[in-house]
Amino acid sequence: MFKLPNQLRLFPALAGVVALALVASGCGTSKADEERGRALFIQNCGTCHTLAQAGTNVRVGPDLDDAFAAARAAGETDSTIEGVVKAQVENPRPSTDNPAVSMPAEILVGQDLDDVAAYVGRWAGVPGAAPPKVPGGPGAQVFASNSCGGCHTLAAAEAGGTVGPNLDEVLVGMPPAMIEKSIVDPSAEIAKGYPANLMPATYGAEISQKELKQLIEFLIDSTAKGGGSK
Ligand code: HEC
Ligand code: HEC
């Protein structure tokens, strides 16, 4: 496993980028759409990064709350952090000597990058940040908090993700034990036509037994009548 780089090593690297990023971003990007940025983050960045407000928990790359908490506490503004994030995506600076754990360049560009950078700038390192509260009971909250909707469509959660299968369709008639297995051990069986290793393999460890039960009940209730997305 790739170990989370410690902040002492990360912070000097960050400081260098801040100056650069300030110049590059020209400051004050107001046209960015943070809501869209959140969905894009979940799909494109949450597969490697933890960020509390996005509900992502993967730690292939640094935990972005940890990475920016000190800078924020030291008074850096949203737009400074936004600039750092943008510079990192445009031109990733490796933090280790191991290319296998490095961040690929230009995962996102243009408006997509603007929106993601604004979103991360708004939330990374904000104390107490959490996913937005959603209506619909505890299972709906587990679904939202774990960003399932960033990748999956589920009408009951008002989620329109298209990275993974449409849950309104595939969950109809699926036995609860199989739904559970798909969530906690996604690589056991890969849905036809979809890539392996894309759905985070960490939910088994990160969703409590109680929450998992609530989530599965929510999924079954939501799709019991043949799905709601038509
Ligand atoms: C394939 C995994 C992967 C993906 C996808 C990924 N990153 Fe990274 N990211 C990393 C790694 C690993 C690092 C540590 C630097 C390095 O070694 O490349 C990193 C570093 C960073 C840093 C610097 C953090 C610090 O402590 O200085 C930021 C900011 C960042 N990523 C943002 C993003 C954003 C935004 C996206 C989505 C557009 C993204 N990353 C997508 C793996 C990834
Ligand atoms: C980063 C994108 C991503 C996230 C986040 C994600 N999934 Fe998935 N999911 C996929 C992909 C891609 C597949 C198809 C490949 C596979 O079977 O692993 C999949 C497969 C599934 C399946 C099996 C579908 C079938 O046809 O057999 C279920 C059920 C599922 N996901 C539920 C969830 C739930 C619930 C969450 C949140 C706890 C979640 N997923 C989060 C991408 C994602």
Structure description:
The chain has 230 residues and is mainly α. It has two domains: 7-123, Cytochrome c-like domain (Cytochrome Bc1 Complex, Chain D, domain 2); 137-223, Cytochrome c-like domain (Cytochrome Bc1 Complex, Chain D, domain 2). It is built from ten helices and four strands; from the N terminus they run ααββααααββαααα. The strands form two sheets. A two-stranded antiparallel ribbon has the order 1-2. It has a two-stranded antiparallel sheet with strand order 3-4. A hairpin with a 4-residue loop joins strand 1 and strand 2. It starts with 6 loop residues before the first helix and ends in a 7-residue tail after the last helix. It binds heme C (HEC) (2 copies). One heme C binds next to helix 1, helix 3, helix 4 and helix 5.
Provide key terms for this protein:
230 residues; mainly alpha; Cytochrome Bc1 Complex, Chain D, domain 2; 2 domains; two-stranded antiparallel ribbon; 10 helices; 4 strands; 3% strand; binds heme C
Write the layout of secondary structure elements.
Blueprint: H1 7-25, H2 34-44, E1 50-51, E2 56-57, H3 64-73, H4 78-90, H5 110-123, H6 137-145, E3 153-154, E4 159-160, H7 167-170, H8 176-184, H9 203-206, H10 209-223
Antiparallel strand pairs: 1-2, 3-4
The protein binds heme C (2 copies).
One heme C (HEC) binds at residues 47, 146-148, 150-152, 163-165, 170, 179, 182-183, 186, 190-191, 194, 198-200, 203, 215.
